[in-house]
Design brief:
This protein is an alpha/beta fold. Helix content is about 30%, strand content about 25%.
Length: about 425
């Protein structure tokens, strides 16, 4: 029986060590910085406890005061609490009891959810007595830990298992379709994600770079489970100063997100010309063997959109992205949720194509014409599919050298014309027989 893992969230004020604990428990890299609000969104990953799993979420820093973006973070946290099975409430021993800790404790008590109070930065056993000033917050379970020093992590793990009970195993957790939402900064990646989810799950702000981390969110669509990976905008490496470590790490995370995805949504801005950076991102998806959709967002901002103009936009995208001709082009409006269902249906079909396997006898029913080069006939004898995700084919031939790219493209097109590999690259390996 397929199960969903229980949901556990780490909540607390900014910079109390939530991301350090999250990274320790899930082995997932999270941007960690002394700058408050570095983790701006809900980030989630599986946390293995013995043979079972929970979905652990790292929440943005909670505080009662702050600018509009901080208030936006607070609203998201409050919205997420109702979906949780357990809350890990983290406070900072070195900072002492804070008015924001008290305000958040009052909010958590109103949820009726089980809470484990974790007092972080208790680096030595002799300091544990100081942690109990936080007992006044009114929670039964209090565990002093050091996330950085890995102190008392086993006690926390035991407490989580005791509260939740039986956990689903890896074999019981359904396999998700992993979709990375990638693109330059400020093209509407987070808005597309929010439109897909039907809620404001990711912070949307007009300032480029609002989303700093990769954020995993989960969706059920037509019976299929989808993991959506939203990323910080990929910028040209020359423009990312290594001194700005957070931005540099965000670029690295975005490339990592492509690497661990099955299908990529490359978001393009309908109001902006296609740039070298857009093409570079597209080439990452191809070179890593990932399915790809070219999603042209913000079409609602184009006045007097006609069928002819839509065709012109698609032709322009295909012209610039001709090195990935297999990728479908979908025009969307995140604000109006236009073509969002089409986007989701295309994700499902591309994922099927990405893992499609063709029977060898069917494959060899395709007629491949020989070519003559310098008076010598070059012939394909047979073909076999040797792998999936992406599809990979071995081509047995009498070639003593690599075939010309035009002949390789001809063979690929013959395969695509006979079998549906829309949205996915296919790999051809020629082998002399």
């Amino acid at each position: 029986m397929v199960k969903k893992p229980p949901k556990v969230a780490i909540v607390g004020r900014p910079n109390v060590g939530k991301s350090t604990l999250f990274r320790l428990l899930t082995r997932k890299r999270v941007i960690i910085s002394p700058i408050p609000h570095t983790t701006r969104d809900r980030i989630s990953a599986l946390w293995q406890i013995d043979d079972g799993f929970v979905e652990l979420m790292d929440m943005g820093g909670w505080t009662e005061k702050g600018d509009a973006l901080v208030k936006h973070i607070i609203e998201q946290i409050e919205q997420a609490l109702s979906d949780l099975d357990l809350i890990i409430f983290m406070v900072d021993k070195t900072a002492g009891l804070n008015p924001d800790d008290i305000a958040l404790a009052e909010l958590l008590r109103r949820t009726d959810k089980p809470v484990i109070l974790v007092v972080n930065k208790v680096d030595r056993e002799s300091e544990e007595a100081n942690a109990y000033e936080f007992a006044s917050l009114g929670f039964d379970r209090l565990i002093p830990i050091s996330a950085k020093g890995r102190r008392n992590i086993s006690e926390l793990t035991y407490a989580v298992k005791e509260v939740i009970g039986c956990l689903p195993t890896r074999s019981e957790i359904e396999e998700d379709i992993r979709v990375a939402i990638v693109g330059k900064p400020n093209v509407g990646k987070s808005s597309i994600l929010n439109a897909i989810l039907g809620e404001e799950r990711v912070l949307v702000d007009s300032a480029p770079g609002t989303t700093r981390d990769t954020i995993d969110t989960y969706l059920k669509y037509h019976g299929e489970s989808i993991t959506l990976i939203d990323t910080a905008g990929l910028r040209r490496k020359a423009r990312v100063k290594k001194a700005d470590q957070i931005e540099w790490l965000s670029v690295r995370r975005a490339i990592d997100a492509i690497e661990r995805s099955d299908v990529c949504l490359l978001i393009l801005d309908a109001l902006e010309p296609i740039t070298h950076q857009d093409k570079t991102i597209a080439s990452y998806t191809r070179d890593m063997g990932k399915g790809c959709i070219l999603c042209v967002n913000k079409i609602d901002l184009i006045q007097e959109m006609t069928s002819r103009l839509k065709d012109e936009i698609e032709l322009n995208v295909r012209k610039h992205m001709r090195f990935i001709p297999y990728a479908p082009v979908i025009l969307t409006s995140a604000v109006r949720r236009k073509n969002i269902n089409r986007l989701l249906k295309t994700i499902l079909s591309i994922h099927q194509n990405w893992k499609r396997r063709i029977n060898t006898s069917e494959l060899n029913n395709i007629e491949i014409e020989p070519i003559t080069i310098k008076g010598k006939e070059r012939r394909v004898y047979y073909m076999a599919q040797v792998d999936t995700r992406p599809p990979k084919f071995m081509i047995a031939s009498n070639f003593s050298d690599k075939p010309h790219f035009s002949y390789k493209r001809y063979v690929e097109n013959r395969i695509r014309n006979n079998f549906d590999f829309t949205g996915t690259p296919i790999i051809l390996k020629f082998k002399k027989r």
